[in-house]
Design a protein that fits this description.
single chain; three-stranded antiparallel β-sheet; 2 helices
């Protein structure tokens, strides 16, 4: 499912929100959002998107891992 521009925009305007862009050869190949609650107690990863021509290469997993690494002290639920 593709999210609308309005849905993505609403997500990144939430206090504590972060936007991550995946660049491949200078082109935006994907993005992921995260919302940090409290003092990094909980990080909610949302709307992980990879453009169709870049899928099946592990990029979504790499973005998720990058967010988890950036917030090592946060509680994770899987």
């Amino acid at each position: 499912m593709n999210h609308s521009f309005e849905e993505c925009q609403a997500t990144v305007t939430i206090p504590g929100s972060e936007l991550y862009l995946l660049l491949v050869d200078g082109e935006v190949a994907g993005s992921a959002g995260a919302v940090v609650y409290g003092n990094e107690d909980i990080v909610f990863i949302n709307i992980v998107i990879v453009r169709e021509q870049y899928r099946r290469r592990g990029y979504a997993s790499m973005m998720i891992q990058h967010i988890l690494d950036a917030h090592k002290n946060a509680t994770t639920f899987r």
